[in-house]
Amino acid sequence: MSDATLLLHLFHSFAKVMYQSIFIDLDDTVWAFAENARDTFQNMYEQYHFGQHFRSFAHFYALYEAENTRLWAAYGEGRITKDELNERRFSYPLRQVGAYDEAVVRAYSAQFFREIVYKRKVMPHVREALDYLASRYDLYILSNGFRELQERKMVSAGVDGYFKGIILSEDVGVHKPYPAIFQYALQVAGAEPASALMIGDSWENDVVGACRAGWQQVYYAWKGLPSSLPFQPTHVMTDWREVKSFL
Question: Where a domain ends, among 116, 131, 149?
Answer without folding.
Answer: 116
